[in-house]
Design a protein that fits this description.
heterodimer, A: about 290 residues, mainly alpha, B: 5-stranded mixed beta sheet, 4-stranded antiparallel beta sheet, 2 helices
Chain lengths: ~290, ~170
């Protein structure tokens, strides 16, 4: 764990086997950021990648959406489900293979990071729906990607999560603060940097970078807040947790600034259990197929 | 350090589940974060009761949904099911663990989101109310835990990726 002598850029450059997004998915993410794009633009972008298109159609026809009849064309799926839903399906299909990898550095077995990321996405989306549907759809995307920095940092831990946890306890730090102390940056910053390298929209980069420190986010903090809350929900229920456990700070000020009463928290957690189980049941096997 | 997939592969009691059985197989309650994993054992009949409760109280939700979600309702149902199988409440020995919290939320002064802390308190209160004998507990902190129960020895082991594993107690004691 001598990462302190390496810069964030060095870490990303020297980490082999870092994930990449299919070009078609990146294009869909960028297209759906613009409200003037047509459904056919999104369908055409996806159609460049046949394997991805097939997986998106399979997910679109899952029980979760309860469509009256099967959709067989991408253009039809975009019209019926909406551009942002199709974007999220493309994201699920593209990210599953690398989010499902084991990350021994964080003590995460196969599918653990996927389980956590998916739960975080569902939680962020559910809470964001109270504000707007468009924020909810983007919150899903941001939630799913918020821990991508762990994919790069894991290899540098060399199975020393317990040592880092012990350091955190000794010095009264959160796990991300301990990461910063050892490496000079934490997994959120690495994730933000990776997202920038992929040319993801600035709002997503921002949400990934500040999801553990929402009070430091700039004035456009709504998306950051949703991911912070979604992450907290996923942590509270133990979805895909590793050696870092729940050792992160929850800023309950984000509840107040999003007009969520602390007294409503148990109801939110209960709704999250139901929503998550419904999503996970419908998508779990399909995402892996 | 084992990762989260190799920690244990024994039959498991999932979130919001209540499991009642008899046998010698090792059983687990994995992925305990703010939720509480509870093991109750009657060494006379060999019956085991397990629960993974994620919310403190069913108040306001009685008769709706799954009782295993709530500490107060879940323990009541768990004991009822064991008694239906011939278990005497006085013979039950209980251990529980979990109730973790996120860092910093303990000192915010806003107790509403401290679900782990409230879950642990509700389990303790409900055990007392039902006259159940608590042998040991391991609650709080920030680590995710697994509870592993071995009926043959009565041993309750708490595993944590961050803190390792330790024998919490035996439920075959006098």
């Amino acid at each position: 764990m001598d990462g302190a002598i390496l810069s964030l850029e060095d870490i990303v450059k020297k980490t082999t086997d870092l994930p990449t997004f299919p070009a078609a998915t990146l294009q869909v993410i960028q297209l759906t950021e613009n409200s003037d794009r047509k459904a056919s633009d999104v369908a055409n972008a996806l159609a460049q990648d046949q394997a991805l298109s097939a997986r998106v159609l399979r997910l679109a026809n899952s029980a979760f959406f309860g469509l009256q009849r099967q959709v067989s064309e991408l253009s039809e799926a975009v019209v019926v489900l909406g551009m942002r839903n199709v974007r999220n399906l493309a994201l699920i299909a593209s990210s599953y293979p690398w989010l499902a990898r084991p990350l021994p550095g964080y003590g995460l077995g196969p599918e653990a990071l996927w389980n956590h990321s998916f739960a975080c996405a569902v939680g962020a989306q559910m809470v964001a729906k109270r504000r707007s549907q468009s924020l909810a759809d983007t919150a899903f995307t941001a939630g799913l990607l918020c821990d991508i920095g762990k994919l790069a940092l894991s290899a540098w831990f060399e199975n020393k999560t317990a040592a880092l946890y012990a350091l955190a306890i000794r010095q009264g730090l959160t796990f991300d603060e301990a990461e910063s102390q050892v490496f000079g940056f934490d997994h959120s910053e690495v994730g933000g940097y990776l997202a920038e390298q992929w040319n993801l929209p600035a709002s997503l980069v921002h949400a990934i970078r500040y999801h553990h420190s929402p009070m430091w986010a700039n004035e456009s903090h709504a998306l950051v807040d949703m991911v912070h809350i979604g992450d907290f929900l996923a942590m509270q229920l133990g979805h895909g947790l590793g050696g870092d456990g729940l050792r992160y700070r929850f800023f309950d000020q984000v509840l107040a600034r999003n007009e969520i009463e602390i007294g409503d928290w148990d109801k939110i957690l209960e709704d999250f259990i139901e929503t998550h189980d419904q999503f996970a049941g419908a998508f779990g096997e399909l995402a892996a197929a | 350090m084992a990762d989260s997939s190799t920690l244990t592969r024994a039959p498991a009691c999932g979130r919001s589940e209540i499991l009642v059985e008899k046998g010698n197989s090792v059983v687990t309650i994995p992925n305990l974060a703010c939720g509480i994993g509870l093991a109750a054992f009657d060494s006379v009949t060999g019956h085991i009761g397990l629960g993974h409760f994620v919310l403190p109280t069913a108040a306001g939700n009685e008769g709706v949904g799954n009782p295993g979600k709530y500490a107060d309702m879940g323990i009541k149902v768990l004991v009822q099911r064991l008694e239906e199988l011939g278990v005497e409440r006085a013979n039950l020995q209980v251990a529980f663990c979990g109730g973790a919290t996120s860092f910093g939320s303990q000192d915010s002064g806003r107790t509403g989101i401290e679900v782990g802390k409230r879950n642990a308190a509700m389990v303790q209160e409900t055990l007392d109310r039902h006259g159940l004998k608590l042998i040991a507990k391991d609650v709080g902190g920030n680590a995710v835990r697994n509870l592993v129960f071995t009926p043959e020895t009565g041993e309750v082991v708490v595993q944590s990726l961050a803190l390792g594993q330790r024998v919490l107690c035996s439920l075959r004691g006098g």
